[in-house]
Amino acid sequence: MPLKIALDVMGGDYAPREILLGAVQARRALEVELILVGQRAAIEHELSDIQAADSLGLPEFEIVDAPDVIQFDQSPSSVKERRGASIRVICDLTRAGHADACLTMGHTGAAIIASLITFGRLGDVLRPCVGIKYFNLQPQTLLVDAGAMVDCKPEYLAQFAQMGSIYAEKIWGLAAPTVGIMANGREDNKGNELTRAAFALLKNSGLNFIGNLEGYDLPNGVANVVVMDGMWGNVALKLSEGLSEQLLGRLSKRLLEVEMPNAARGILDEFQVMMDYSRIGAIPVFGVDGLMLVGHGRSRAAAVVGGIKSTMQAVQVDLLGALRAGLTAPDTMG
After folding, report:
1. pTM greater than the 0.85 cutoff
2. Are 277 and 113 in contact (CB under 8 A)?
3. Beta carbons of 101 and 291 less than 8 angstroms apart
4. What pLDDT is attached to residue 1?
């Protein structure tokens, strides 16, 4: 029986059109059923337009009406009172067993709060977090936390490392993922009060902890799991995105000016693929007792398909079961 995913059609900069285009492509290419969640009238209107321009005919979808949408400029905590928001409804469907997992390209903060409200915390987890692979430049390097928890305690970072390690084991098949914590130098005494305290916990955690990392270690793939608080994790992620877009854009423009040969065009395309956010897929919310995955807010159809693939993989490898079995409280690590 195919997996079933509850998809937030209203989340993302290009919703609902691009989310629906991705849903159509995924249904044709993958063994998956999708529940389309959002404003029914808008969904039906967009599907009608897509069908009119599509000679193949549309696959069948179940549609669940959700009249409310959490916008990116709205407070994530507003999701607590807005039970009709699409990002809440996808969680409700998953908790009720109507879907195996849920996926949004919408507000990350709202996704975390909605999943916490609906699923509850997982075991002894102190705080949830999100992890994201370092593009395809280093596809087996996970940055965690990527933006969920900006104010952290050492114990939070230790659990982020645990959850990231379990993810790397289950999703990437790594037997003993290496773990490092971001600091301002590799020496054991570097960092601030937070990272030094977390260093001590991680050193005795039983994880494959390799110590402090510096900023350039992230793009060089020195560790499989790179731990930092959510503020600096998000800064590192967005800085990398912006820098790669600027450099590759300028390089492309310059090569066009000098009439680059086709071979050079192919090489440039390879580098663009390495840093293309749309190829990341979707990232799980770690630390909640249910499968909620979040894609990039700028996702277009291809990125939505990637997000659906990521969600399917998380279900297929029983990521949630592995997290339930593998997590321990920080004071029992080791």
Report:
1. yes
2. no
3. yes
4. 80
